[in-house]
Amino acid sequence: MKKLIILLGVVVAMTSMTSCATLDNFLSGRPSNSVLVQDYNEQMRLVRLNFPEIYDLYKQGKIMIYEVYTYEKNDTERVGVGYRYR
Asked: What is the pLDDT of residues 14-64, one digit of tens each?
């Protein structure tokens, strides 16, 4: 029981030291260096260019896009999208 309390204390201490954005990225499954795209027009432009099949499903009303983000991997900017079926 003591080990469990100590482990819980370590986890709480580590999460309090990290930034909220990093913790949010970790909990959502996004890369730690990702940046959410807030502008709707920019979101749709990025989805249309990088994920045309997802964009078509979105236009047909079959999916809902809940986040679009950019991140850097191997010195190139990448785009990620979060969606779910309706």
From this structure: 665 555 555 454 455 777 889 999 999 999 999 999 999 999 999 999 999
Q: Quick check: 66 and 84 in contact, CB under 8 A?
A: yes
User: Whole-angstrom Cα distance, residue 76 to residue 66?
Assistant: 24
Residue 68 bridge partners (DSSP): 81
**What span, in angstroms and rounded, lies between the C-alpha atoms of 66 and 73?**
22
Instruction: Please list the alpha-helical segments (H only) found in 1-86.
Output: 2-17, 20-28, 40-50, 52-59
Q: Is the pTM of this model over 0.70?
A: no
What is the C-alpha separation between 47 and 34, in angstroms, rounded? 16
Of 27, 48, 26, give the one whose Cα is nearest residue 37.
48
